[in-house]
Amino acid sequence: MFKIPFLDLPPLRAAAGTVRLPGSKSISNRVLLLAGLSEGQTLVHDLLDSDDTAVMLASLKVLGCQLEQVPGGPLKVTGIGGRLVNKDAQLFLGNAGTAMRPLTAALALLAATQGGAFELAGVARMHERPIGDLVDALRELGCEIACLGSEGYPPLRLSGPSRLRLAEPVRVRGDVSSQFLTALLLALPLVATQDVVIEVVGELISKPYVHITLELLKRFGIEVRADGWQRFTIPAGSRYRSPGEVHVEGDASSASYFVALGAIAAAETPIRIEGVGSASLQGDVRFVEAAQAMGAEVRAEANALEVKRGAWPLKALDLDCNHIPDAAMTLAVMALYADGPSTLRNIASWRVKETDRIAAMATELRKLGASVEEGPDWLRVHPLRAWKPASIHTYDDHRVAMCFSLAAFNGLVTDSAVPVRILEPHCVAKTFPDYFETLFEVVTARPEDIPVLTIDGPTASGKGTLADEVAHELGYVILDSGMLYRATGLAAHRAGLDLDDGAAVAAIVPAMDLHFRKGRVTLGEEDITDALRAEAAGLMASQVAAHPQVRSALNQLQLDFRRVPGLVADGRDMGSTVFPDAPLKVFLTASAATRAERRYKQLISKGISASMEGLRADLEARDARDKGRSASPLKPAQDAQSLDNSAQTIEESRDLVLAWWAERRPF
Ligand SMILES: Nc1ncnc2c1ncn2[C@@H]1O[C@H](COP(=O)(O)OP(=O)(O)O)[C@@H](O)[C@H]1O
Ligand SMILES: Nc1ccn([C@@H]2O[C@H](COP(=O)(O)OP(=O)(O)O)[C@@H](O)[C@H]2O)c(=O)n1
Fold first, then answer.
1. Which of 260, 329, 505, 601 is the most exposed place for a label (fewest CB within 10 A)?
2. Enolpyruvate transferase domain: which residues (predicted)?
């Protein structure tokens, strides 16, 4: 996950490959609650790991459920069998509607029948999301509920015992959020000593989510009788029975970004999306039909989709989106690539989601330059051809962040492509913590569009440290080019080659089986990270680096690191030779005394013995060789910014470089 203030997406051009979706949020939290209320054990496979499931899990634990993660396997949930273990608890539910609503219903009913006191609270936005209709329905049933802030909103206090009135049908509004009905359906089996009837008042929205609820209840042994979508009966004597094992489907709303990606950018080979398909329970899988109407070519298997671009530009759309409320946000961004204005209708529920999504989408689309009209329950988006680089505010709303990533394909409809900045990208953790990593796996950009920041300088000036810090802050890929020279030196040495024979050393480069993963370097099967860090490897590197043949043999390997979303490259000639078009080139220096001292401390802290004088002599010899060689000698690129960090802390250097970087970005 990118836990950084912003993530800049360079102009993207194409997409291909396979993505595996994380588990559905709606199914995960429903299954967890049902497993938690059931008697016995349930093995939950493919559970979504996200903010919203984390708050549900934390609550179940407080309520006395036992949770055990089988390493690399399912989560084992041992339920409370409908009997309260802990009758007095405070639960924090973040911004998770899928936890707040059903837990309110379940705990209100349990408190009424078994006694207890529960406080349910969330983040500030959760306290602005209405829950009054559910509270009213539960009070009608005889539950005691106090709204601790504003009437009709969380935080709530649920207490009991109190006498329940189950003989009369309980009435709940269906036209604001179907989650109120879902909450009652999930919870009422707890008290179904007689038939309990729920009547929906008003037209029920988001029916597919209620369908998921009914299907999952069935798997947990509860056969609800439904009369149309207006009246539901929970039969007397209903009891949750664990099915033993449950597999959570991939998240169909999350699939929408990749379906859209295929429609926009998979011109050659399709994007394959695994985890949802034609057999999916989730209503949002019908997003596929909307994407097809806009031109996507889709092939559906039971549990996978393959999507390719069909019509281009996309075809404008006028759609009632009531059946795909969450996924429909993606259509608003697809509309930018259409051949006319697109209208999304019947989306009033957007106004009470993580943020007011109609207002948010309109505001952010306009920042890109789009012309947008909005009404109480509709949004019209006009196609965009003159794009502006924009900083997209994400309102702590995962879906805003994910759907605006698709704006980075603007280069497919304009000659002057622009990057897109996504603020607070970690908000995707709500449903898809690795969304951007997954996206980056399947998209490509033109190398010249991918920004590079270079840091060159003499040994122990702090290049590696600064590069790590800056790359981390920007979410960029890192190239420690010295490691490539070190690995080449080491491999040549081990092969018994004369390190002064440039042609012989260069000849082994193509066959080097070198991999960089998670800060470790492997050569073939062997982890050579520590060997590479030794001073001896640095000297060997400097020796082989003097040969033009070796430098050119390593050139393409270095260029291959220029990957989405951007690159920070450190070495000797990153700015002067390898990435001459980098928008920011830093030449980092520090006095020889400072550098020798830093290297000394670095080695000592790793338990490697060293002498200050020896180190200084080595580094001066290495500097002399690096500066004096004819091939790519160590010297600042013409347009480099010099930085002497002798008297600076690491943070000061980092912040200065980030400030220079900010000056060069178009946002
Ligand atoms: N600005 C700085 N101030 C103090 N120490 C630093 C600074 N930059 C780096 N260092 C320290 O100096 C040591 C050498 O830095 P390193 O990044 O390995 O250098 P290089 O990659 O240039 O050889 C590290 O232990 C690092 O923590
Ligand atoms: N881009 C690069 C990177 C390293 N090198 C060579 O590789 C040696 C080791 O590089 P490094 O960056 O790992 O070394 P330190 O600066 O960490 O000591 C340097 O002394 C250079 O001779 C190079 O020539 N060009």
1. 601
2. 16-439
